[in-house]
Amino acid sequence: MESLGAIVLNNTYRDSVFLMKISSEICSMEGIIEASAMMGTDRNKDLFLKSGLSNDQVKAAKSDDLIISIKAENEKVLNDSIVKAKELLSTSVSTQNESNETRQIKRLEQALKEDKNANVLMLSCAGDYAKYEAAKGLSKGMNIMLYSDNISIEDELALKQKAHEKGLLVMGPDCGTSIINQVPLAFANNIRKGSIGVVGASGTGIQEVTSIIHRNHGGISQAIGTGGRDPKKEIGGITMMDALELLKEDEETQVILIVSKPPCMEVQNKIASFIRSTNKPVVVNFAGNEDYSLIEEAGGQGFDSLKRAAIAALELSGLHECPEEICTLDQKKLSDEIANLSQERKYLRGIYSGGSLCYEAMYFARKCLSDLYSNTPMKGVNKLENVRKSMKNLFLDMGEDEFTVGKPHPMIDPTEKVKRIKQELQDKEVAVVLTDCVIGYGSFEDPAQVIADAVMSTRKECDQIPLVVTSVCGTEEDFQVYSTQVKKLQEAGILVASSNEEAIKLCLDIMKQNKGECDHV
Amino acid sequence: MSDARNLFKEEVDVVNIGLKSFSDSIDNIGGKITHVKWTPPASGNTELVDLLFKCELHSEEIDAANKEVVDIIMSGQPVLLAVRPAREVVPGLVDHMILHAGPPIEYNEMCGPMKGAVVGAMIYEGWAKDEEEAEKLILEGKIQFDCNHHHHAVGPMTGMITSSMPVFVVENEKYKNRAYCTINEGIGEVMRFGANGPKVIERLRWIEKVLAPVLDEAVKKAGGLNLKNVMAQALAMGDEMHQRNVAASLQFYKQLCGEIQDVVNGKPYAHEVIEFLVKKNDQFFLNLAMASSKSIMDAARNVKKSTVVTALSRNGVDFGLNISSLGYRWFTAPVKMPVGLYFPGFSEKDANGDMGDSSITECIGIGGCAMGCSPAVVNFVGAGSVSKAIEYSQSMGEITVAKNYNLPMPNLNFEGVPNGFDIRKIVETGILPVINTGMAHKKPGIGQVGAGIAQPPMEIFEEALRVFVHEQLGE
C-alpha cells in the first residue's frame, strides 16, 4: 500500500539548498516514491499538490512553516523515512547554531555594515524574495547577479529600469553565468584573462563559448549574463545594451561576442546600431537563428553555432583554433558499432542539464530529424506532454522548472539527470543518447564519473545499449579538470566531441548511417 | 555606492544570498565574498514582500521623505512655556468634551479603567455627581469624546483631559507648534488607572488650584525651560523616560528650583508642593517627556511619501498607528497584553490590555528604544539582563531610520537613540517596536499592577504599508 505522510514544523526556516539536500537524501532511501522538503509558501504548497505530496497537514501549513512530505511504498518505509528526515533536520540545527555564534549576518544591511565596499549582490533565493533583495541592492548602489527565477517580466523591467537610471547592471533573472574581473558568479569556468568581452542571454551558452576560447588559448575580459528574457520586446535588452556600452568603453576588451536566443527585432536593431557605433569587431550567435543579414550589414559577423562564434571571436583577437586531439574518434570502430545496432533502434535522445546547449542541439537536429519532441520546443518541434515519458526523437532540458522544483539544478546534482540517461539507455528503441557534461565553479564535482557509471552499469545489465555521445563544457583549469573528465567518459565507451555542436552533428551522422535519416548534416 | 562603469576597475566584492556553493567558489579563489545567513523577509509572506518591493522601486523618494522626517524629529526643541487649564490652550477642546488616550473609541467600547476615568473626569468637572448620572449624560449624547492626538495632546494610560485640568504647554521652538499633556498625578489611586473616588478627585483639584499655578508662575519666571536638554541629561543618568523618570524629574526640579522657591516662599502649601515634585513622584517627568515627544512628532506629520511612524497609541482595546504621509489616518488592531513583572498579589489575569499615549516617547527614540542605557529599568520591564536591554536598543536600530545624536546613550559609546520607526523595516524584519509600559488593573480604580514591555500588533504596520503603497505610490 502506497503511503503518504508529512511533517510540518511551525515557524522553522531552512534555506532551499539545505532542504533540497534533505529531499534528495530521503528520495534516495529504498522504497521511497517521492519526497520533498520545502517552506510552506503558497507556491510550494501548490507544488506539493501537483506532485501528489499534499494532504490536509500540508494544506494548513503557513509560509514560515517547514514541510517535509514523503510518499513511500508502504507505511514501514514511510515511518523510517520520517525518522530519518527528523534526524537530518536536527543535525542541521546544531551545526547552524555553532556557526551563528561566529557570524550573525542575516540581512543584506548587516552584510553591508561589515563590507562597505561590496559592489555585487548575488541572489539565488526564491524569486518572490529575490526581487525585493535585488531592489534593495540597487538602492544601495550594488550591481545585481540574479540567478533566481520566478520573477515576473513586469518586475524584471522595473528592476532593470531602476538599474539603468543608476548606471548599474541587473544580470538576470534566471542568469546562470557571469564572470566579472575573473570572479565567477554562479556557474562559470576558469577562463584566462584576455581581450574578448562576452555578453550572453544564456548561461551555458556563455560557458560553452568562454570554455572554447580558453581551450584555444584565448581569454576574456568580462562575461556578462543578462538573463534569458532580456532581449525580448518587453525588456528591450536593457542589460544587454548597457553591458555592450560598458564593453565598448572598456580598454581591455578588443572583441565583443554576443550569445543569445534570437532577440526581438527592436533589440536586433539596437545591436546593429551598436555595431555601427564601435570600432571593436562584434560576433553574434543567436541560437536557432539562420538569418544574420541585419548584423552583417552593420559590419558584424553572425554564426548559428556557439563553437563557430567563439572561434570567430578568437580569430578576431589574433589567435587560431587548435585541434583538440583528446577528442578524436576511431571512425572504423564507430562504423562497426553503428552497423551492430539492432533493427528497432531508431531514435535520438538528448538529455541535457544546460538549457542553451540543449537548444543549440535541437536547432541542428530540427534540420534533419522528424518526430522531434522537447519540453522546451522551438518552432518545428513538438511539445512533450508528459515529461517523464520519452517520445521518439527527444530533447530534454532538465534544468527547467518541471525538473528542478524542490530539487537542485542538474548541474549541481546530476542524480535525476543520470536516472533519466539510464532510462534512455535501457530503451530498446533508442539508437543514440546525447548528453552534456558541464563542469566549472558551482557545478557538480565529478559529472563524467556519474555518467560513465550509468553507462557501464547499464551495459552490464542489457544485451545492447545505444551509442552515447557527449561533449565536456569546461577547461583544464576547472577543478574537475577537462581532460580528466573526457578520459573518464571515453573509458566508459562514450564518444566525446570537442563541442556541443560537434556532438550533435556526430549524433546526426550516426542517425544517418543507421537509418538513412538526415541528409544535410 | 558603485557604478557599473567602475566595476571593471574595482575589486569585485560580492554579497551572496542563496546557494552557499556560489560563495564557496569565490572564497576558493580568494575573492571577496560575504555570505548572508538569510531568512525570507516578512516571514515569507509574498503579498507583503511584493509591497516592500514596490516601495523599494521608489526608495529614493521614500528615503528622502524619511530623512526629512527624522531631521525634523532630531532638530525639534521642546520648550515648556506654561501650565494652563486645558480649556484655555488645547485647540478644539470645548465644554462637556472628554479627551482620552489611544485611537478614537466610543464610550461603550472602552475598557473598564477608561470608563472609570471618564466617570471620574465628569465628577471632577461637576457634570455628574456619580457614575449613574454620568452614564445617563453619556447615553443622552451630552458628552463629546475624542482622542488626545486629534488635539495636539497626549495623556498617560487612560489619558483623560477635560476643560478644567491644567496641562503643560510645550512649544517645539524650531517649528512653533505646541503640544499638551496633563500633570502627573503621582502613584496609588489615580485617574490614569481608572480610579474615580473622592481621594482622586481631591488630588486633581489640588493639582488644579495649587500646583499648576505655582508651576505656571515658576516656568514663566524662568522664561521657559528647554526640555530636550533635561532629557539628554537624564539619559546620561540612567533614565529611558518612559518607565524610569527619577533622574529626569530631579533634573526638572533642579532647573526650576530657584523660581519655584520664590513662588512658594512663605505659602502654607510650600512643603507640600516641593514634596510632591521631588519626593513623592518618581514619574513626574513622564508627562513632560510625552508632551515633548508629541511636540516633536507633530512637526514631523504630513510629509508626503514618508513611511515613518508619527504616533503609536493605545486605548486599552485597540492599538493605533499614524505614519507621517497619511496624516491622522488611524491603523488599528486589538492591543496585546504587556509582558513583564507583576506587583505582589497580582498576575496577568488582573491586567488590562495595553493602554496610553505614552508610547509617543518611543517614537522619538526614548523609552524602549533607549532601554540599553537604562540598566536600572531592565528587570522591572522584564528584559532580564543589561546585555539583553542593549540588544533591545540595537534591534530598534534595525527598524529605525537614523540615530539621534542629540540624545546619546553613554554606555553604547554615545551612539544616538534609534530614531524614526520605518514601517517598511518593521514589516520586513518582523521586529516590532518595544514599548516600556506600566500595566493597569482591568478593574477601574485599583491602579497599576505591574510593568513590562508591550508590542504593537504587526497587522497595523502591514495595513499601513498596504494603504501607503496604494495611495502614496499609486501602485
Explain how this protein is built.
The complex is a heterodimer of chains A (521) and B (475). Chain A contains 19 helices and 20 strands. Chain A folds into 4 domains: 3-102, Alpha-Beta Plaits, CATH 3.30.70.100; 106-173, NAD(P)-binding Rossmann-like Domain (Rossmann fold), CATH 3.40.50.720; 175-322, 3-Layer(aba) Sandwich (Rossmann fold); 326-515, Succinyl-CoA synthetase domains (Rossmann fold, 3-Layer(aba) Sandwich), CATH 3.40.50.261. In chain A, strand 19 (467-473), helix 18 (482-491) and strand 20 form a beta-alpha-beta unit. With 521 residues, chain A is α/β, with parallel strands linked by helices. In chain A, the strands form 5 sheets. Chain A has a 7-stranded parallel β-sheet with strand order 16-15-17-14-18-19-20, sandwiched between helices. In chain B, the strands form 6 sheets. Chain B has a 5-stranded mixed β-sheet with strand order 6-8-7-3-9. Chain B starts with a helix and ends with a helix. Chain B has 16 helices and 18 strands. With 475 residues, chain B is of the alpha+beta class. Chain B folds into 3 domains: 12-44, no CATH class; 61-73 and 300-472, v583 domain like (v583 fold); 78-289, Enterococcus faecalis V583 domain (Enterococcus faecalis V583 fold), CATH 3.90.1710. Chain B is globular and about 85 Å long. The longest helix of chain B is centred in the middle third of the chain and has 24 residues, at 198-221. In chain B, a hairpin with a 7-residue loop joins strand 17 (435-440) and strand 18 (448-454). Strand 4 (120-123) of chain A pairs parallel with strand 1 of chain B, so a sheet runs across the interface.
